[in-house]
Amino acid sequence: MQQLSFFQDTETYTSLARNSFSHDGVCAEMARIALDERYAHLLEETDKFNRQLVSFQANKTEVLHSWMKYREGFSANLVELLIKELEVESGDVILDPFAGSATTLLEAKMMGINAVGIELLPHCHLAWEAKSRAFDYNLDELRSIRGLIEQTIPPETDEKFQHLKITETAFSSQMEKDLMAYTYWFETLDVDQNTKLLCKFLLASLLEEISYTRKDGQYLRWDSRADKIRKNNKKRIIQGKKPLNGINKGTLPDIKQVLLERLNRIIIDIAKLKNDPPLLSHQNLIEGNTLYTLPTVAANKFSAVITSPPYANRYDYTRTYALELAYLGVYDEIFNLRQSQLSCTVENKSKVGKLEAHYQSIGCHNRYKQILDIVESNLALAEINIALSKRNERGDVNNRGILTMINQYFTELTFIFAELYRVCCTGAGVVFVNDNVRYAGEVIPVDTLSTNLAEQFGFIPHKIYVLPQRKGNSSQQMGKFGREPLRKSITIWKKP
Known about the structure:
By secondary structure, the chain is an alpha/beta fold. It folds into three domains: 11-120 and 282-494, Vaccinia Virus protein VP39 (Rossmann fold); 136-211 and 252-276, no CATH class; 214-249, no CATH class. The chain is built from 20 helices and 13 strands. It has a nine-stranded mixed β-sheet, with helices on both faces. It has a two-stranded antiparallel sheet with strand order 5-6. A two-stranded antiparallel sheet has the order 10-11. The model is unreliable at 1-14 (pLDDT under 50).
């Protein structure tokens, strides 16, 4: 592999480094300033990519990738660009330790490159199974299914939607009956198992569209017509409180309409894909938690890493994707799923004890201690922890869980950085897409802090590309601490 160049015709702007991290200088900030100064020569702004490229937006019209809306993911175009820039070739193996809807794996498949992903959430595995079989579907059978949907009203069933508490009344009673009728009908059709899997995926992918909910970052927003909102507002009025204003999604489509629209798109995509199949390659999506899976993977296996971890933004995927998880029967396991995620919400409990037990069980307790020592000796992370604690004492922190969330987030990422160094081949390029964040007036430089932690294990920092469009901060923070544009970054490291 040659030295990475990534984008041409760009200029390095050392002004991208910050000289202030604490609003009004309330807390110590010299360690964070020192990090930005240390890596200022790596910060480079370019207009060759934008917010659409590092989000799902660019996937909305893409063949195959548009089958499922996964707003937390990045685009296929970004993966393709990175694969080419990292000079990954056929025979190499790419790793995505936070695979999400498997964009990295799918794009590798399209380019004839081997890939491995790790992902915790069941609906992401369903999406991978459905999309990865694109070349195996029988188009005639899919067209036959389309005709059946057009001409048939599925019989009613006694099967009920197994709601989680937070999804109750997400559908009108008739919509829920229709959903379960189609679910049962598809399961009983005499069709290929691949076709049944695709039908299940189709229904899972349209739940938000036919519901009274809308995904909105940390939670689901609710339409005012949902029984949950109406009953709650009746109680509030009796108590003399103002009713809550729910959203209005307008006229909801019926399931038949959405099924036909999506199936038509899929049939068109599959026909295109079959006309130009890629070179044979192998991809595998491992179900599990990256923190516990990576330590068991063989060393020196991967030629590149392309990933985007959950951001430290309090988003809880088990809530935003609660409908999909409930539909797939994830009921008793929902708490464990929530706690198993990378600590990016205020509810996550420390995983340090479990990590220690895991490393002991695989005979690597010394490695565990070495990694933890690096976390605990990092000056910038210590400064951030102290700053957030001081802000909390001042009453600036709206949820004390933010303090533990941030410390746990970087602790867990550090374990992942250590394992990535071990499992990567010499010369491998590692790409992380992430956002800087701000809490209680304290800016947390995720990009430079992650780079600093990764460097402790031997990675050579290569570049921190910064999007021209800056990330804003919450209206609550702007009201109290003013607006503070934050870097959205693509960090690139290399294993020597």
